[in-house]
């Protein structure tokens, strides 16, 4: 066993969990410096291990599935066997690096950002818990382990959105996120069950091996669609919840109620990309069902456009970024949905940098603006917060897709891939160009709303009131430091994925090389297509910037005001997020409430409370009343009851008895009946009466328990035997049927 | 020799009288006397069967029952005395504390 095989992958998620445990148990009594040291230290150690594993050990093992670490056998039931095991291959390794590296930066930033918060330790405990769960999610070797992380990050998301839980709005935003995610998780679970039903395994490596055209996954399952389609569809429903896609995206904008570092880490860089990761992880499965990939791509493209349009009209710094995140996640889904898994993951990676950077800038700006995120009240912050401005500038150009900056490469890879894809069946050929066009429009929109944000916040005169202006200041260096690092990543991070094939150097695409071990070789895009869309993307990015400059350069300009005045309804509608929340409220929540209320009133109040609970009580009450009369407290009455009982016992014990079944012997039409009880001495002096045709008159009487009788005709007869004790005139009887052969 | 049946008839009559006394009378002394009658009715039946079957076990039983009756009378009368001391009555209707 070499070093690579014995590498303890389990330590990577374990360290943050350890940090969280310490902070939850003892954090309250610790100094702030200690808290940060533990929290950031745990992540730094995890990051160190992740980098070591990735760069030192992974290259040796990448060809045969990467590093694997089995902790113990977790579930064993029937033919279901699940190890608690972790696996690092190129894909999960890349995610690991993103999570630990950006997580570490955000821990540092949060140390400054949360400085004045009384619940310092709780915040870092949750943050560590989140990192641990996220690492379990990406490193999980099988679906159930991934699901543990999947639920864990959902929990942390809930806890951190509602971190300032004394405000009702924050608490309900947390609940909204959790419940929306639960809806998705339901799909995830169903997908997992179907997958197990079809393949009998939930390990990613085995699923990958089984997902071939001849397997059970490819066989038709329901409505003529293959099993892979249904598995993929249900898992994708889970992804729409976690990754905020239509129709389950509604929680993400509200999630901005949490502290800004949380928005950056969880709701931009890591957790929300889990859905994309999952689809990429199961790429072999998804490739079996191109139809579901088409659905993924269309949902992604629609989300990208829809969220971008809402982003035009938002006036809250973080809300704009939130819709931007939803939109960018849509891009990633188009990437994986067009079978271009590498580009989806590439965009995930670049997005993690520039969006985390943008969010942290937002935090820094809000810090400077006395906590307000209203961009209508900002402006002119370029000179007042120069570092933040510089970082924002880089991230802004990256997200717009200006060449050289990271977003340019990843976005272009997705768009070009969408036009060039050939994974769809003949009838769905239109999907690729359609989603590609939608993405181009969304890219234009992205460029426009991000530029609007930039111009309104950083250029022109300040629109803030005097008091706020007075307090504007650059953030402390512990916040600026991580910002600068992220800006470097956002600026240059794209260079690992340069489409080197264009210049005759495919080896320049380091990322594509790496990922090909995990998600298959990169999609071949014709060079001229690639060049064409690079040109179009650049033009659209610059176009959006110039358009925004015309509208908002240096503050609200004439065209912006005119436009708002010309179509006030449209602007209002976009500001109100197309009233989707209200729609869900009317279509789902309200009916659900009415139904619950009805169920509560009927089932709970009437059926359970009154009928079952009340009924049981009433029965006991009545029985109690009756039996209370028996308890008179009068010894003589008790004695009388006792005497009656004793007499009854004597009566029944001395009655003549018959066996519980008669012994009947049939020969021809002659029947012999024996009514004596075996193993018991029969009392003397009893009279037996045998009524062979049950007409009330006995055919044979006497003291013998046996009798013989010959019937005149066959068929069925009933024999009735009565035994009498002539001294006490007590008797008992028994009936028996006899079936005779012969003619009737 | 008289048939056993006659002894049993007498025993039965005695038992019924004793039972009636126990169940119907309210004076605790009379109730105790009724119990004595029941026990002795049992004794009579025992002895009658013993004689009919020529088996002396019935006599042994009768002696045991006599001893038991003596003990019962002693304890019962002691209870009655303390009841009377406590409540100035030996009427059983008034000794219904079990209900409350």
Would you mind describing this structure in some detail?
The complex is a heterodimer of chains A (744) and B (100). By secondary structure, chain A is α+β, with helices and mostly antiparallel strands. Chain A has helices spanning 11-26, 32-61, 90-113, 120-139, 143-161, 168-199, 204-210, 227-242, 251-254, 260-269, 274-281, 283-288, 290-313, 317-337, 341-368, 381-384, 386-400, 406-420, 431-458, 466-471, 477-492, 510-519, 527-552, 558-566, 568-575, 580-630, 635-653; strands at 67-77, 80-88, 220-222, 225-226, 663-667, 670-674, 687-691, 700-702, 706-710, 715-725, 730-740. A four-stranded antiparallel sheet of chain A has the order 8-7-10-11, with no helix packed on it. In chain A, strands 5-6-9 form a three-stranded antiparallel sheet, with no helix packed on it. Chain A starts with 10 loop residues before the first helix and ends with a strand. The model of chain A has no long low-confidence stretch (mean pLDDT 87). Chain B has a single domain (4-93), classed as Helix Hairpins (Orthogonal Bundle), CATH 1.10.287.3510. Chain B is built from three helices and no strands. The longest helix of chain B is centred in the C-terminal third of the chain and has 31 residues, at 57-87. Chain B starts with a helix and ends in a 13-residue tail after the last helix. Chains A and B meet through helix 27 of A and helix 1 of B.
Q: What is the strand arrangement across the widest sheet of chain A?
A: 8-7-10-11
Q: What is the largest interface, and how many residues per chain?
A: A-B, 9 and 13 residues
State the CATH topology of chain B: Helix Hairpins
Percentage of residues assigned to helices of chain B? over 70%
What is the CATH architecture descriptor of chain B? Answer: Orthogonal Bundle
Instruction: State the low-pLDDT regions of chain B, or none.
Output: none
Calculate the terminal CA-CA distance of chain B, rounded to whole Å. 55 Å
Apparent shape of chain B: elongated
């Amino acid at each position: 066993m070499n070093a690579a095989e014995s590498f303890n992958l389990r330590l990577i998620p374990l360290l943050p969990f350890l940090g969280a445990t310490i902070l939850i148990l003892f954090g309250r009594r610790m100094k702030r410096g200690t808290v940060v040291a533990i929290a950031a230290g745990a992540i730094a150690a995890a990051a160190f291990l992740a980098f070591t594993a990735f760069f030192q050990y992974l290259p040796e093992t990448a060809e045969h599935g990467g590093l694997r670490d089995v902790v113990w056998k977790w579930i064993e039931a029937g033919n279901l066997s699940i190890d608690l095991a972790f696996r690092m291959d190129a894909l999960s390794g890349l995610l690991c690096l993103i999570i630990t590296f950006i997580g570490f930066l955000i821990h540092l930033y949060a140390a400054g950002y949360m400085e004045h918060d009384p619940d310092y330790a709780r915040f870092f405990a949750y943050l560590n818990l989140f990192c641990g769960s996220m690492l379990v999610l990406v490193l999980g070797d099988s679906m159930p382990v991934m699901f543990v992380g999947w639920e864990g990050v959902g929990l942390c998301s809930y806890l951190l959105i509602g971190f300032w839980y004394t405000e009702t709005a924050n608490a309900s935003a947390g609940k909204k996120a959790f419940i929306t995610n639960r809806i998705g998780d339901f799909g995830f679970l169903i997908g997992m069950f179907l997958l197990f039903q079809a393949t009998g395994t939930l390990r990613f490596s085995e699923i990958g091996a089984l997902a071939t055209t001849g397997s059970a996954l490819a066989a038709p399952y329901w409505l003529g669609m293959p099993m892979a389609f249904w598995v993929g569809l249900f898992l994708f429903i889970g992804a729409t919840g976690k990754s905020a896609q239509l129709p389950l995206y509604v929680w993400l904008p509200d999630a901005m109620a949490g502290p800004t570092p949380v928005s950056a880490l969880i709701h931009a860089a890591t957790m929300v990309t889990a859905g994309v990761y999952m689809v990429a992880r199961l790429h072999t499965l998804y490739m079996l069902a191109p139809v579901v990939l088409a659905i993924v791509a269309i949902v992604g493209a629609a989300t990208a456009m829809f969220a971008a349009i809402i982003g035009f009209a938002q006036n809250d710094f973080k809300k704009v970024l939130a819709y931007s995140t939803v939109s960018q996640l849509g891009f990633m889904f188009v990437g994986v949905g067009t079978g271009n898994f590498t580009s989806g993951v590439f965009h995930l990676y670049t997005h993690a940098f520039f969006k985390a950077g943008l969010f942290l800038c937002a935090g820094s700006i809000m810090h400077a603006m006395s906590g307000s995120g209203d961009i209508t009240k900002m402006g002119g912050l370029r000179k007042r917060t120069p570092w933040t401005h510089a970082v924002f500038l880089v991230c802004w150009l990256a997200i717009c897709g200006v060449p050289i900056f990271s977003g340019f490469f990843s976005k272009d890879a997705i768009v070009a891939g969408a036009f060039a894809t050939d994974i769809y069946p003949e009838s769905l050929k239109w999907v690729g160009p359609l989603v590609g066009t939608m993405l181009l429009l969304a890219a234009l929109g992205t460029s426009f709303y991000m530029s609007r944000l930039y111009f309104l916040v950083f250029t022109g005169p300040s629109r803030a009131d005097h008091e706020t202006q007075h307090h504007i200041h650059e953030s402390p260096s512990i916040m600026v430091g991580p910002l600068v690092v992220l800006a470097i990543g956002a600026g240059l991070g794209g260079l690992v994925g340069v489409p080197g094939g264009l210049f005759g150097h495919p080896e320049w695409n380091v990322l594509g090389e790496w990922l090909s071990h995990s998600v298959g070789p990169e999609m071949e895009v014709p060079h001229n297509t690639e060049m064409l869309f690079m040109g179009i993307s650049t033009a659209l990015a610059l176009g959006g910037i110039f358009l925004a400059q015309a509208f908002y350069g240096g503050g609200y300009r004439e065209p912006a005001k005119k436009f708002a005045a010309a179509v006030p309804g449209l602007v209002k509608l976009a500001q109100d997020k197309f009233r989707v929340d209200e729609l869900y409220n009317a279509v789902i929540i309200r009916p659900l409430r009415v139904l619950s209320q009805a169920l509560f009133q009927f089932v709970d109040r009437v059926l359970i409370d009154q009928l079952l609970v009340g009924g049981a009580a009433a029965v006991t009450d009545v029985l109690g009343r009756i039996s209370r009369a028996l308890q008179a407290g009068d010894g003589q009455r008790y004695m009388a009851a006792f005497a009656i009982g004793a007499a009854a016992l004597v009566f029944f014990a001395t009655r003549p008895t018959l066996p519980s079944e008669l012994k009947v012997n049939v020969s021809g039409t002659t029947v012999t009946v024996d009514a004596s009880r075996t193993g018991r001495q029969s009392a003397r002096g009893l009279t037996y009466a045998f009524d062979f045709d049950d007409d009330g008159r006995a055919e044979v009487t006497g003291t013998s328990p046996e009798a013989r009788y010959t019937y005149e005709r066959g068929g069925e007869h009933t024999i009735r035997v009565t035994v009498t004790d002539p001294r006490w005139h007590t008797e008992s009887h028994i009936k028996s049927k006899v079936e005779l052969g012969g003619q009737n | 020799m008289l048939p056993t049946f006659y002894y049993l008839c007498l025993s039965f009559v005695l038992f019924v009288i004793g039972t009636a006394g126990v169940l119907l009378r309210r004076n605790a002394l009379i109730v105790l006397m009724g119990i004595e009658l029941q026990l002795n009715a049992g004794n009579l039946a025992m002895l009658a069967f013993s004689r009919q079957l020529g088996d002396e076990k019935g006599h042994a039983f009768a002696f045991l029952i006599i001893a038991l009756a003596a003990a019962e009378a002693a304890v019962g009368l002691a209870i009655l005395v303390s009841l009377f001391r406590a409540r100035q009555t030996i009427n059983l209707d008034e000794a219904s504390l079990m209900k409350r």
